[in-house]
Write a structure and sequence with these properties.
The chain has 260 residues and is mainly α. It has one domain (3-217). The protein is built from nine helices and no strands. The chain has helices at residues 3-24, 32-54, 59-85, 97-116, 126-151, 153-156, 163-185, 192-217, 228-249. Helix 2 packs antiparallel against helix 3 (59-85), helix 3 crosses helix 4 and helix 3 (59-85) packs parallel to helix 5.
Length: 260
């Protein structure tokens, strides 16, 4: 067994371990999208490994087939994390909050799109550059999302023992390593160092899986209430939406114009 085969096998074992921890602690009920994403990751990684070992000519096809669903899954996981953070005070939120979060993530992705071009390896086909550009955009979005959650952890009343921040920190760490390697690849010729950098990305993914296994194996602590600052923001959001609805319902109907 080569080192590459050992890393792939370790990743599959790690993904099964994460899924087992999610089922054991019933975390899948709180984060169903993330749980489905881990199941998807295991299935696609196993299929890709089999194709790579037995049917190498179809490897690029399998990669392209799973590429966009994987990126969409990651986006939905971020949306789920943002929605889960607001769980203690959802009753006071306006009905359109989930749509607002979805729109904010889309806007953040659109703003990141031009910046992600730096991490794309030049000189490739237009197809490959588009896929790589899209992939790096999602990776940067994961990093930004983690930094925002960590920066506002006190206001959001979350800590390193909360599942949402644990998932986001794992995504963020893996994305940071992937971006660093992508930037180095874009300024590096093929050679032994190129392959070792790719293995460093796999090692960072294994580290993320190990962190998730350790985190999800422990009992989740009870969520705290939001800080007074965050509660005030939510009240203002809800009050603004309600006052807007009241204002719309209280607008008197237009009087018909008199004809001359």
């Amino acid at each position: 067994m080569t080192l590459g085969d050992a890393l792939v096998f370790s990743a599959l074992v790690g993904e099964v371990s994460v899924l087992s921890a999610l089922l054991w602690r019933r975390t899948w009920k709180v984060l169903p999208v993330f749980s489905l994403y881990m199941l998807w990751a295991f299935i696609t990684d196993a299929a890709t490994a089999v194709v790579h070992w037995r049917f190498q000519s179809y490897y690029s096809t399998i990669y392209l087939i799973q590429f966009f669903p994987d990126a969409i899954f990651q986006f939905l996981v971020l949306l789920e994390l943002a929605w889960a953070v607001l769980r203690p005070n959802r009753a006071s939120l306006p009905k359109g909050t989930l749509i607002v979060l979805f729109s904010l993530l889309l806007l953040a992705g659109a703003a990141i799109w031009p910046l992600a071009k730096v991490a794309v390896l030049p000189g490739q086909s237009a197809h490959f550059e588009f896929f790589a550009h899209f992939q790096q955009t999602v990776a940067i979005l994961r990093v930004v999302f983690f930094l925002v959650m960590a920066g506002f952890s006190q206001i959001l009343a979350i800590g390193w023992k909360d599942r949402e921040l644990q998932v986001a920190s794992g995504f963020g760490f893996y994305a940071i390593i992937s971006l660093i390697v992508a930037v180095m690849h874009s300024h590096q010729a093929d050679g032994p160092q190129y392959e070792w950098l790719d293995r460093a990305v796999v090692a960072s993914y294994l580290s993320t899986l190990a962190y998730w296994v350790l985190s999800f194996s422990t009992k989740e602590q009870e969520r705290r209430e939001f800080s007074p600052q965050m509660q005030q923001i939510l009240v203002q959001m809800g009050g603004g939406v309600r006052s807007g609805r009241v204002a719309l319902t209280n607008i008197p109907p237009k009087q018909p114009r008199k004809r001359d």
